[in-house]
Design goal:
CATH topology of one domain: FAD/NAD(P)-binding domain
Structural class: alpha/beta
Order of helices and strands: EHEEHEEEEHEEEEHEEEEHEHEEHHH
Helix content: 25-40%
Shape: globular
CATH superfamily of one domain: FAD/NAD(P)-binding domain
CATH class of one domain: Alpha Beta
CATH architecture of one domain: 3-Layer(bba) Sandwich
Largest sheet: 8 strands, mixed
Number of strands: 18
């Protein structure tokens, strides 16, 4: 019998496993795909680094910038110089590798098998993989936007609460600024994020109904402004994008289960930031398990960052208007001045 089974080896699952193992609870991580390169920018904000100082000292090559540039619908370019710290831009493959290794080095077990079914019994969980079945006292669902753990507990994240993004990993943009082009017509944005030896360039929309022609729009931008780049790989993905506060009010933990990270829908709707929330969820879910009260997680995450996430959900519709993006950039500048960025 496994004490704690964590389905999903991304930042949320790996950091939960690490936090448990550091407290003498040795979980099993089920994941046959991680670590892998994930379709996102890989940005780690100065705020995330203050919450988790180890992020400043990772022995991983990465891009780093002290300013963030926005291109508004008017084509005006607004750049914000970071007053304290810097933004770090990681390859998700390398970052996730490091986090999994942190967990395993401290005693967590990594089971590289695909979970195909979860069945809740009275006091435990039956976990069926492509190879065999396992039994666990507590289940942690950290398996992403299409979470099997979520479907097996509170039901799937609705299509309305998912966004769509696509993009490329490319060479020859490593010296660019971190650039975000806000797209009112898409209720989304494009980005260029320089990493160490490559860059991530992509486009995302908060609403699947606005995804028609998404890649074509990105390709037009690449052809117009970055025709010299070498494309390494391409991708398309769904992302959590919660649009209704009621979705976040549904409990994401029960007597012997917890949902964290993307599986819980804990991603900032305006710009898709999820790494900070994933690490926080990993830490807080481990705390709830250590205190022998998984349901405590429902309270812990709301106390830690719930108000911030709720405000982001409320502001989402307003942001993607022409006045909204202008004011958003002003608010970011104010946050930076107050060293909250």
């Amino acid at each position: 019998m496994i004490e704690v089974a964590i389905v999903g080896g991304g930042p949320a699952g790996s950091y939960c496993a690490y936090s448990l193992a550091k407290n003498n609870v040795y979980p099993a991580i089920f994941d046959d795909t991680h670590p892998r390169e994930k379709p996102c920018g890989g940005l780690v904000s100065p705020l995330a680094q203050r919450f988790f100082p180890f992020l400043e000292k990772l022995p991983i090559k990465h891009g780093q910038r002290r300013r963030l540039c926005f291109i508004l619908p008017s084509e005006r370019r607004v750049c914000i110089s970071i007053r304290k710290g810097e933004i770090r831009c990681f390859s998700r493959l390398k970052l996730d590798q490091f986090l999994v290794k942190m967990a395993v080095d401290n005693g967590a077990e990594w089971i590289k098998e695909k979970v195909v079914a979860l069945e809740r019994k009275k006091d435990f969980w039956k976990i069926k993989t492509t190879c065999r079945s396992y039994y666990a006292k507590i289940l942690i669902g950290a398996d992403g936007v299409n979470s099997l753990a979520r479907r097996s507990t509170i039901g799937p994240l609705s299509k309305m609460n998912k966004g769509v993004c696509c993009g490329y990993l490319v060479k020859d943009l490593e010296k660019e600024d971190i650039t975000i082009r806000l797209l009112v017509h898409r209720k989304g944005y494009m980005w260029v994020v320089p990493r160490d030896d490559h860059a991530s360039i992509g486009i995302g929309t908060a609403e699947a109904s606005r995804s028609y022609g998404l890649r074509q729009e990105l390709d037009m931008l690449v052809k117009r402004q970055y025709q010299y780049v070498e494309k390494i790989s391409r991708w398309t993905a769904l992302i959590p994008n919660v649009k209704n506060l009621k979705t976040l009010q549904v409990p994401v933990a029960g007597p012997n289960w917890i949902l964290i990270g993307d599986a819980a829908g804990h991603v900032s709707p305006p710009l898709g930031e999820g790494i900070l929330y994933a690490l926080l969820d990993g830490k807080l879910s481990a705390q709830a398990v250590i205190e022998n009260n998984p349901e405590l997680f429902n309270k812990l995450w709301k106390e830690a960052y719930g108000n911030s996430l709720f405000i982001h959900v409320v502001l989402r519709k307003w942001l993607y208007t022409k006045p909204g993006v202008e004011l958003y950039c002003r608010l970011l500048k104010l946050q930076n001045m107050l060293q909250l960025l």
